[in-house]
Amino acid sequence: MTYLIMVFDRKLGKVFKKSSLDYHKSRKGYSNELFLDIIKISKINKKSKILDVGCGSGLSNFPLVKKCYSITGIDPSK
């Protein structure tokens, strides 16, 4: 099992909260190849449960959801 731990900077969270809609609109997303690499390297499968802590708008989760992966995203911002 692999874990990635990041520390949340509350000052940055306040800035992001003010501009989250702009951030979401400006994001272009990620290539399908990136997600194929993530699946291969992490060895997740359709029965895996993925937790995205600090998911923001959730844009990075859409390609995995489309491939029928189970993802729960949580974020301190709305």
Write a brief caption for the model.
The protein has 78 residues and is α+β, with helices and mostly antiparallel strands. The chain is 42% helix and 13% strand.
| Weakly predicted, low-confidence segments | none
Biggest beta sheet summary:
2 strands, parallel
- Give the integer mean of the pLDDT values: 78
The ordered string of helix (H) and strand (E) elements is: HHEHE
Strand order of the largest sheet: 1-2
Distance between the termini: 29 Å
**Structural class computed from helices and strand pairing:** alpha+beta
Structure description:
The protein has 78 residues and is α+β, with helices and mostly antiparallel strands. Helices cover 42% and strands 13% of the residues. The chain contains three helices and two strands; from the N terminus they run ααβαβ. A two-stranded parallel sheet has the order 1-2. β1 (49-53), α3 and β2 (70-74) form a beta-alpha-beta unit. It is elongated and about 35 Å long. The termini are far apart. The relative contact order is 0.20.
Characteristics of this structure?
78 residues, alpha+beta, 42% helix
Write the layout of secondary structure elements.
Blueprint: H1 10-26, H2 32-42, E1 49-53, H3 62-66, E2 70-74
Parallel strand pairs: 1-2
